[in-house]
Write a structure and sequence with these properties.
Layout: E1 8-17, E2 20-30, E3 35-39, H1 46-54, E4 61-66, E5 69-72, E6 85-89, H2 100-105, H3 112-125, H4 141-153, E7 159-163, H5 171-188, E8 191-196, H6 199-205, E9 208-213, E10 216-221, H7 223-228, H8 233-240
The structure holds adenosine-5'-diphosphate and magnesium ion.
Magnesium ion binds next to helix 1.
GO molecular function: ABC-type ferric iron transporter activity; ATP binding; ATP hydrolysis activity
Domain ABC transporter: 8-239
Protein name: Iron(III) transport system ATP-binding protein
């Protein structure tokens, strides 16, 4: 049997800022339908890695593949809008002048009826169908976040990149929104690369964790394997304040 092709693979990505290797020879894979979590303390290079995959920053070395096809190395580069990547960031704002429905429909092509059906289905799944004609400022932070999820998923991206998408939310809401988000992503079968500095979020959401420190991946594996057998004392300490 041949090995399945990763939805996303990055190989030996390096990014240097001011002579410092902020991302240092990072390789990782995200398999179809899986959530891979890039986990590590603040400043370790997670967002830079994600920005390079999204195509808004450029690596100094290394390659990016989607479904086995090269999309970017240091000479060849498919532009961000043609990578079939969905993005969700903490402060990735909705368009304030568009209704909830128009926000979700924004990146869609097809007939009006097809777009409407897709928008209604996604809003149903995040329990926000009743807000379809409202405007973002009429919604709570958690509701806006769920609209942002629906908007990112609407064009059926091959991969979703999520950078600390839940960190602006209040504690009481966070677990509920994490679980709902995970449910929608699994239903859609979307491959996800989720960046977080919170071990409990990675434990809750990931199929696979890549533990990052100082620009490098220091350990990777299933959440409970990493939790139960951290690679060194620093990794153990990082996981110890999990709640
Ligand atoms: P994380 O998302 O893990 O918190 P980042 O990828 O945002 O980390 O940043 C990693 C390091 O790279 C930090 O020390 C940050 O200050 C530095 N950095 C990020 N972007 C730039 C830039 N455009 N120019 C210089 N340094 C940067
Ligand atoms: Mg970051």
């Amino acid at each position: 049997m041949t090995a399945p092709i990763p939805r996303l693979e990055i190989r030996n990505i390096t990014r240097v800022f001011d002579g410092r290797r902020v991302v240092d020879d990072v390789s990782l894979k995200v398999m179809p339908g899986q959530v891979t979590c890039l986990l590590g303390p603040s400043g370790c290079g997670k967002s830079t890695t994600l920005r390079i995959i999204a195509g808004v920053d450029m690596q100094d070395a290394g390659e990016i593949y989607i479904d086995g096809k090269l999309i970017c190395d240091t000479v060849f580069r498919i532009p961000p809008e043609r990578r079939s990547i969905g993005l969700m960031f903490q402060d990735f704002a909705l368009f304030p002048h568009l209704s909830v429905g128009q926000n979700v429909a924004f990146g869609l092509s097809g007939s009006k009826a097809e777009k409407r059906a897709r928008v209604e289905d996604l809003l149903d799944r995040v329990n926000l169908r009743r807000f379809i004609d409202d405007y973002p400022h009429q919604l709570s932070g958690g509701e806006q976040q769920r609209v942002a999820l629906a908007r990112a998923l609407a064009p059926r991206p091959r991969i979703m990149l999520m950078d600390e998408p839940f960190s602006g939310l209040d504690n009481r809401l966070r677990d509920e929104i994490r679980d709902q988000t995970l449910g929608v992503l699994k239903d859609e079968g979307t491959a996800v690369l989720l960046v977080t500095h919170e071990p409990d979020e990675a434990m809750r959401m990931a199929d696979e964790i890549a533990l990052m420190r100082g620009g490098q991946i220091v350990q990777r594996g299933a959440p409970y394997n990493i939790y139960n057998a951290p690679v060194d004392r620093a990794a153990a300490a990082f996981f110890s304040d999990i709640n």
